[in-house]
Inverse folding.
């Protein structure tokens, strides 16, 4: 029996900044662990809580070549077969408008042997013809899905083309109405789609963006995506960041297992507090790159200050676990130059992906020299960082000789460029080094939520501003 998830938070950072330093980088690691009751089976939510909408691009380009629409039909049938009894679902045909092809009645149908057979019969009739308007497809999925807070809603969207029958503002307007309502995984097939369309939808709607090089690969990919959606247990987990007056959130990116910049999608709770939706969670770990823009409020050095608190909001409630992001301005260059391992790894992965995407953009614009330069740089960075997931994608774009020489692949296809651009957003969790054993007891300081200063662990009042540390929101623990 599934008993849900429990979450934990961890912050990794080098809290020291040089005097005058204005950027504090930290990695916020969130882990969801299953609350077990002795049952070792794979966790899965009650089927009645799950809702799935399959959105299939049926624009005219899906018939060029015909293998695309045929593969889409097979993949959609495989996804339907993967749905357990009781999961509510629908199938949407996407052209310049959205049309629900199953069920015939308004709303969703509960999966059963009979309903799966009926749905697959309708899918077998899908044909290519018409345009592309992804916003209308997402709006149709939104209107089909339940609104209960406990529902785990998922959309799988397949496309092969450009969103040509609506403007970017139309898509953005729909996306804003879908945030927090459902998770959307986007998939590309063929060579006519734009990587930015897939990644934007997936980023805003807390999903993943992937693509295949051959239409025949769709079936296995759809099946894997559905299995991943079925493993989710908790909808709409949110990260809340509350800053001190001298700090503000400059950036928040999901860093692992996929890269997604969430900064522009922050919801403002109050003047100093913002929240970011992260979608549905299963038993998993994700890392987030948080950058705080900070300004020293005074000339005091070598003192830990609380810059921000990070909390999780689950089912509308703030969890008990919390994490502190600290800052300590110092003129000790040894301390401020030290690189935190987690921060260094994430910054390195981001730099590799920027180089890959810059090369893809240059190649699309016909600048082969710049594309080669960017991809060669990405190979160098990924090799040094042992970033194998990036190297896998780069090997589709360039030949890497044992001597280290990097050459553009001859007759490079647009499919390879598009797929490598999208798939490079996938990142890996490197093996964590075992932390060194601490010698002797470690003093735990208390951090003032009013001014950010630290005081001894047994202090009842802040030594800087006099605030009572026992008061709600004005005490905390110093990190390392």
């Amino acid at each position: 029996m599934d008993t849900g998830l429990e979450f934990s938070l961890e912050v990794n950072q080098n809290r020291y900044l040089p005097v005058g330093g204005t950027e504090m980088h930290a990695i916020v690691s969130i882990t969801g662990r299953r609350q077990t009751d002795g049952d070792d089976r794979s966790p899965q939510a009650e089927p009645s809580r799950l809702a799935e909408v399959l959105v299939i691009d049926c624009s005219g380009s899906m018939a060029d070549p015909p293998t695309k629409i045929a593969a889409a039909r097979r993949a959609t049938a495989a996804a339907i077969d993967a749905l357990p009894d009781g999961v509510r679902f629908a199938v949407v045909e996407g052209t310049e408008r959205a049309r629900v092809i199953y069920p015939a009645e308004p709303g969703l149908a509960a999966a059963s042997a009979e309903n799966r057979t009926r749905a697959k019969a309708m899918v077998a009739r899908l044909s290519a013809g018409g345009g592309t308007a992804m916003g209308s497809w997402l709006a149709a999925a939104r209107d089909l899905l339940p609104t209960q807070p406990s529902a785990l809603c998922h959309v799988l969207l397949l496309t092969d083309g450009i969103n040509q029958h609506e403007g970017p503002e139309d898509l953005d307007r729909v996306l804003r109405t879908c945030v927090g309502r459902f998770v959307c995984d986007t998939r590309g097939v063929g060579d006519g789609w734009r990587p930015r369309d897939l990644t934007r939808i997936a980023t805003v709607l807390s999903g993943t963006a992937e693509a295949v090089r051959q239409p025949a690969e769709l079936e296995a990919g759809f099946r894997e995506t559905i299995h991943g959606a079925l493993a989710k247990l908790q909808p709409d987990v949110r990260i809340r960041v509350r800053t001190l007056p001298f700090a503000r959130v400059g950036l928040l990116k999901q860093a692992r297992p996929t890269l997604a910049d969430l900064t522009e999608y922050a919801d403002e709770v109050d003047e100093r507090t913002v929240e970011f939706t992260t979608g549905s969670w299963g038993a998993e770990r994700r890392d987030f790159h948080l950058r705080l823009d900070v300004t020293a409020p005074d000339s005091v050095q070598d003192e830990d200050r609380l810059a921000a608190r990070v909390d999780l909001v689950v089912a509308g409630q703030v969890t008990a676990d919390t994490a502190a992001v600290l800052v300590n301005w110092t003129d000790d260059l040894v301390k401020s130059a030290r690189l935190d391992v987690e921060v260094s790894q994430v910054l390195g992965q981001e730099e590799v992906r920027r180089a890959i995407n810059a090369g893809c953009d240059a190649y699309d614009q016909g600048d082969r020299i710049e594309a080669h330069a960017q991809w060669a740089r990405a190979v160098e960075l990924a090799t040094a960082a042992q970033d194998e997931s990036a190297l896998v994608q780069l090997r589709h774009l360039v030949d890497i000789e044992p001597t280290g020489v990097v050459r553009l692949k001859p007759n490079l296809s647009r499919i390879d460029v598009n797929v490598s651009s999208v798939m490079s957003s996938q990142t890996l969790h490197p093996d964590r080094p075992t932390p060194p054993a601490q010698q002797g007891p470690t003093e735990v300081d208390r951090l003032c939520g009013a001014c950010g200063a630290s005081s001894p662990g047994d202090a009842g009042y802040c030594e800087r501003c006099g605030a009572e540390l026992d008061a709600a929101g004005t005490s905390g623990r110093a990190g390392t």
About this structure: Residues 444-480 form one domain. The first strand starts at residue 5 and ends at 13.
